[in-house]
Automatic annotation (TrEMBL):
Originating species: Leptothrix cholodnii (strain ATCC 51168 / LMG 8142 / SP-6) (Leptothrix discophora (strain SP-6))
Annotated protein name in UniProt: Amidohydrolase, AtzE family
Domain Amidase positions: 27-445
Family matches, as PANTHER family: GLUTAMYL-TRNA(GLN) AMIDOTRANSFERASE (PTHR11895:SF172), TRANSAMIDASE (PTHR11895)
Gene3D superfamilies: Amidase signature (AS) domain
InterPro entries: Amidase (IPR000120), Amidase_dom (IPR023631), AS_sf (IPR036928), Carboxybiuret_hydro_AtzE (IPR014087)
Record keywords: Hydrolase
Superkingdom, taxonomy of origin: Bacteria
Molecular function GO terms recorded: hydrolase activity
Lineage of the organism: Bacteria, Pseudomonadati, Pseudomonadota, Betaproteobacteria, Burkholderiales
Length: 467
């Protein structure tokens, strides 16, 4: 019989709803798995055992438990989400000195209203500015599939916790690729919704004009369940669109038939290593598409995202940069200081490029419904890697992990990252992700394609064999 910690969220919830298992049993097994694997992985910065067990008792006594879509499902959140009673660290040392959050973030409350149970907060790059989760303050989060390698970032704890079997769902954030990069390197499914689709109320910002929140999971169905439970506008988040929820769970079985699917060329081929290209080509072949789509000036769009992130991110931290520069993570401190010195004219031009690029990309969705692209240039690098060789160039490793994700989030498109295995013949135990990208507000199409690929056995998120 499968242990509860090995089950997906949908399976746990079904068992709790029909009484064949209890929420308490699921939480106890989850906490035991965390205790057994944390010394190796280092995904969590806080484990909320008492809170989780108390909430599990409430779910087991819930008179309308059969109506809870996520009944008894343990989950964890990147530590930039407010959690009542904890300071919202955002991966930093400085925020330890702030008052504990008075209440949970809105998305946490929505998941718990659906019956899910929060068990802890997860490690990340400081202030979400990074792609590796090599955090000086809280330690490096290791990739469960190879403990010598990074988990990706900035939501590295989210990807690692799923891959290690610690929880079946997690919540992260994605500004330039921080859901898609860890999903790719850790071999999980991840959803970055359309910009403005999910409210950010109660989360620590990085770049307000680019920040997205979204889930990680071991199955596409779990992504959809979690996403549906979190939908709905918030008047407290001016960036959240006032759109009615559009439920996607019931549409996963529609498959990819009838959808116009393309593969992104140009930048997205040139900046990918052989394993990334092999993953995309394998999925394209399975979907029966040879259509190549070219987006214009992708490199400029990526540069625009870089400048906007650098400038907006630095502005948030100017006071601390003046007073407590020594307390920042060294790498993020240097990036923030550089952002504080950017000429306003550069940032203004970056915004012009961003809006021009969004209009041009919108035209491409007149001829296709979904496009495929690599999520990362390569499989997970070894911890401490400083350089990557890509397209004949020696590039800095950390920022280059976002080469293929930044141009997409820059214009707010919805993306499901799907994990593919065995694409690097010398490292067959490592996954790499493919982005399934749709037009704004069409999360349903990206999820349909992802579910179709999963059902055919081309994408999966197995739990790492840690012990």
């Amino acid at each position: 019989m499968t242990a509860l910690w090995q089950s997906d969220a949908a399976g746990i919830a079904a068992g709790v709803r029909d009484g064949s298992t209890s929420a308490r049993a699921g939480v106890e097994q989850c906490l035991a798995r965390i205790a057994a694997t944390e010394p190796q992985v280092n995904a969590f910065t806080s484990v909320l055992a008492d809170r989780a067990l108390r909430r599990a008792g409430q779910i087991d006594k819930h008179t309308r438990r059969s109506e809870l879509s996520l009944a008894g499902v343990p989950f964890a959140v990147k530590n930039l989400f407010d959690v009542a009673g904890l300071p919202t660290l955002a991966g930093s040392k400085i925020e330890r000195d702030t008052l504990p959050a008075a209440r949970d973030a809105l998305l946490v409350r929505r998941l718990e209203a659906a019956g899910a149970i929060l068990v802890g907060a997860l490690n990340m790059d400081e202030y979400a500015y990074g792609f590796t989760t090599e955090n000086t303050h809280y330690g490096t989060t290791r990739n469960p599939h190879d403990l010598t390698r990074i988990s990706g970032g900035s939501s590295g704890g989210c990807g690692a916790a799923i891959a290690a079997g610690q929880v079946p769902i997690t919540l992260g954030s994605d500004t330039n690729g921080s859901i898609r990069v860890p999903a790719s390197l850790c071999g999980t499914f991840g959803l970055k919704p359309t910009f403005g689709r999910l409210p950010r109320t109660g989360s620590y910002p990085f770049v307000a004009s680019l920040d997205h929140l979204g889930p990680f999971a071991r199955t596409v169905a779990d992504l959809a369940l979690t996403y549906d439970a979190m939908q709905g506008p918030s008047h407290d988040d001016p960036g959240c669109a006032r759109r009615a929820p559009e439920r996607v769970t019931g549409e996963l079985g529609l498959g990819a038939e009838g959808l116009r699917i393309g593969v992104l060329g140009g930048w997205f081929r040139n900046m990918a290593m052989p394993e990334a290209l092999a993953a995309v080509d394998a999925l394209a072949q399975a979907l029966g598409t040879t259509r190549l789509i070219e987006w214009p000036e992708v490199e400029r769009a990526r540069a625009a995202a870089f400048l906007i992130s650098n400038s907006e991110g630095a502005t948030l931290h100017l006071n601390d940069l003046r007073r407590r520069a020594q307390d920042f993570e060294p790498l993020s401190r240097d990036r923030f200081l550089a952002g504080a010195l950017l000429p306003a004219a550069w940032v203004q031009q970056a915004q012009r490029v961003r809006h021009w690029f969004a209009r041009r990309v919108a035209r491409s969705f007149e001829t296709v419904d979904v496009v495929l692209a690599p999520a990362t240039p390569c499989v997970a690098p070894v911890i401490g890697t400083e350089w990557l060789e890509i397209d004949g160039k020696r590039l800095p490793a950390r920022p280059s992990l976002g080469l293929l994700t930044q141009p997409v989030s820059c214009i707010g498109l919805p993306v499901v990252t799907v994990p593919v295995w065995g694409m690097n013949p010398t490292l067959p135990h490592l996954p790499i992700g493919v982005q399934v990208i749709a037009a704004p507000w069409r999360e349903d199409l990206a999820l349909r394609v992802a579910a179709h690929l999963e059902a055919r056995g081309l994408c999966s998120a197995p739990i790492a064999k840690l012990n």
